[in-house]
Amino acid sequence: MRESVRKLGLIGAGLWAVTEDKINDLVKDLVDKGDISKEEGKKVIQDVLEESKKQKVDLEKKISEKIQDSISKADIFTRKDMHELESRVDILEDEIQKMKNKDKMFFK
């Protein structure tokens, strides 16, 4: 599962990079043809890149939510589970030690 998530992230990053290059090329062609000014081209690139970044953040958030949802549905032992069990074991060990100490005092 971890490898699949990593690959998905790489694909997303790759698509974003290709998109940025393509946007720059398209805008440059429009400026060279005189269809838009350099200032308009810069504004278009900035707007598209900002929107692209927003979509990237949204996609990452959705992927994270789906992963968390899948983990919660699956019967997977998490770090949180491990820490909770360690805490319970510590409490039980303390209780056992207290019982042993009481027994020593009682049987003296």
Q: Could you write a compact summary of the structure shown?
A:
The N and C termini lie far apart (58 Å).
Instruction: Give a count of the beta strands, DSSP E runs of length 2 or more.
Output: 0
- Return the domain count: 2
Largest sheet: none
The helix/strand series, from N terminus to C terminus, equals HHH
Question: What's the overall geometry?
Answer: rod-shaped
Distance between the termini: 58 Å
Low-confidence stretches: none
Strand percentage lies at under 5%
Structure description:
- It is a single chain.
- The longest helix has 36 residues, at 38-73.
- Helix content is 89%, strand content 0%.
- It starts with a helix and ends with a helix.
- Helix 1 (2-33) packs antiparallel against helix 2.
- The protein has 108 residues and is mostly helical.
- It has helices at residues 2-33, 38-73, 79-106.
- It has 2 domains: 2-76; 77-108.
- Residues 42-102 form a coiled coil.
- This is Phasin family protein.
- Keywords: Coiled coil.
Supply the key terms.
108 residues, 89% helix, 3 helices, mainly alpha, 2 domains
Layout of strands and helices, then pairs:
Elements: H1 2-33, H2 38-73, H3 79-106
Helix pairs in contact: 1-2
Organism: Methanosarcina baikalica
Coiled coil: 42-102
Protein name: Phasin family protein
